[in-house]
Amino acid sequence: MSELFQEIARIILIGDASEKCQATHALAANLVSFSLNHQTEAMEILEPGYPASLKLVAPRELKRRGIQSQEGRNTLMHAIAHIEFNAINLALDAAYRFRNQPIKYYQDWIQIADDEARHFGLIRDYLNRHDCDYGDYKAHNGLWEMAVDTQHDVVARMALVPRVLEARGLDVTPGIIEKFERVNDHAAVDILNVIYNDEIGHVLLGSQWFFYQCRQRNLEPRATFTSMVEEYLHGQLRGPFNIAARLQAGFDEIEMAALNSRFG
Question: Which of 85, 114, 109 is nearest to 14 (CA)?
């Protein structure tokens, strides 16, 4: 019987996109066949595996193009593919990084990784249909930097990855969908709607595990979330917020009122 943490680490370090997705799907489908050894120590992963063709640069070096042309649409979809590829790694790392959690914790994050691999596959198929592939454009590595910053604390990880990074997707995706609707790119719209609806559930699971971790340490969730934003993001949380989606995803009305008042 293979050991779960060892297998997750192996998948995180896979660079080939197809191989990483296939391994993630196989892990989710055969999770019961893996053993758990909580005595092992998680190794530091400063960078996950990426395709050799992908060039990572600072965000300011990324070019923005309008989506009137197919090249512009490819550029935007490539950026979203990069987010989803990172989301695979982030979900797997949430399962790998933190020991002695309830079994459902590991089940949930591996299922999320499986969903993210499916999302990535949908976008990559779109790119391939338009003579493009993941790695053809530059991308930035800011998402994984948050994984490194929070690798020592499961409360910080649950606060800042699902409830900040992924929740930001809930805020911006409806506007991106509208842009693709205006240029009649129905294939892109369909893909983004699938991702948007699934991500509400992902953020909800992240919120639930954040609340769980706060209860374990007798922490007040709203104050803890605010302190994490202050500590790790220096109080910089970007609005406007998709209140309806965030309420479905585990935020409450008091929390949203506070976020709107300060960052909206």
Answer: 85
Question: Could you write out the DSSP letters of every residue in 66-102?
Answer: -SSSHHHHHHHHHHHHHHHHHHHHHHHHHHHH--S--
Nearest to residue 221, comparing CAs of 178, 130, 159?
159
Residue 237 is predicted with a pLDDT of: 85
* Tokens standing for residue 90: 């982030």
pTM (2 d.p.): 0.96
Q: How many CB atoms lie within 10 A of CB 47?
A: 14
The tens digit of pLDDT for each residue in 157-177 reads: 999 999 999 999 999 999 999
CA-based nearest residue to 73, from 185, 174, 159, 162: 185
In whole angstroms, give the CA distance from residue 172 to residue 169.
Answer: 5
Domain architecture of the chain: domains with CATH: 69-263 (1.20.1260.10)
